[in-house]
Amino acid sequence: MNRQCLKVLSGPWELVGGFYQAQCIMIKEGILAGSDGPQFWSGEVIKAMEGLWAGTPVALGHPYGSNGKPVSIKAAPNHVIGTVSNPRYDPATKSLRAVIKVPEGVWRVNQLGNLREVSVGVFTDSIVDNGWHNGKRFIGRTRRAVPDHLAILPEGQVGACSWESGCGVRVHASELDELKQLATMAMANLADILKGKRSDYMRDHREMGYFPSVNEETDEQILANWENCTNPNMLPPPEITALRAKHESRQQKPSTGHAAAAMYPPGVE
To answer: Does the predicted model carry a pTM greater than 0.85?
Structure first.
């Protein structure tokens, strides 16, 4: 496995002690549409699962049998890529959080960089109970659930509790926290520039009109690391696309017209 494939990506994954780790919100109170239709999951039911998730397998996609129906992860051990660690219930958001741990040596680890959606694989005890919650109708109520696995969904698939609704692989507990982290990083960059520690990055900033990267590697090294990834079919993240455009623009600077004005702000030689 090429260790650089995840290193060049910004996002939630960190390499710690031989494991790629990421924070995750697995499920939260609300209407979740599973195999039994839209079911209401209460915070109490979700909290009751807290102690059951530790060590539960993490799969890349839900496992299915030869008949096309979902099966337990025990029947498809080849789907396992990691485990759930440190599950904890958050009473403020009525959600269940955890840390996903994937061993560094798992050959499919380089597929995780762009994936954010997750889905819980659970055995449930539900009852018929028509009603509404936050403007959404449900036809059943989950009374109890036993974890089987947590699936990280392939690109294009969305979990019952989607990333947009607050679940999934995340940098922090909320989008506000993510914005705060980005602002902190930007201020640290600015402080370094003002102190004269990053004259080379400041030159790039003047030429390209955007804030410099915090990565200590050069742009060329990052691009080289990405090109050496073992999975050529993996779509490049926005960071790599931006670096490619930046590198290409340096090769031939436009001299006149709207292209020059767009790439090089007024006042830049």
So the answer is: no
